[in-house]
Amino acid sequence: MSRTIPTINTARLTLRAMRAEDFQRYAEIWAMPDVADRILDQPRPKGQSWDAFLRNAGHWQITGFGQWAVQLHRQREMLGQTGFVFGSRNFGEDFDTYPEARLVLAPQAQDQRLGAEAARAAHEWFDRVITGRTVCMISAGNEAALRIAGALGYQGLRDVKTAGGAVHLMTRRGPPG
């Protein structure tokens, strides 16, 4: 089965398929303490990043959705990633059975409203093409991510403890409004 990964353009960003040449930057982003502090309990080693990078490609092939590389128009370097995955996190059927929205940006791209722009574009695509309920997980204290999730229509499901600390599990039953 072969699936085409769509390219999405916004006012400032391009969301596109990840390419082999993106891996080095992908691994750099996941090794950054500023990224790990918001998502993981520690920076991700390069080998784990490779596994995650390949898992993303497989997601598109098997489910018809996945994560895009996020880049500024007319720039080659990816700033991060956004999209949807089945995370299989063992949080229960009310979470694990739904596509999980994800957004990761390198520190230099944060605080420019680029995350909101990228996540909104990904959700608009999902609402047109896949449809249905989605979930997300946000680290406690990540106020920027909570604002983005709220603007997209996510509501609290419950709080849980993970190896990386307390997280908010949230759910979205479809587009807001």
TrEMBL record:
Highest taxon listed in the record's lineage: Bacteria
GO MF annotations in UniProt: acyltransferase activity, transferring groups other than amino-acyl groups
Chain segments annotated as transmembrane: none
Domain N-acetyltransferase: 12-155
SUPFAM superfamilies: Acyl-CoA N-acyltransferases (Nat) (SSF55729)
Protein's name in the database: GNAT family N-acetyltransferase
Originating species: Sulfitobacter faviae
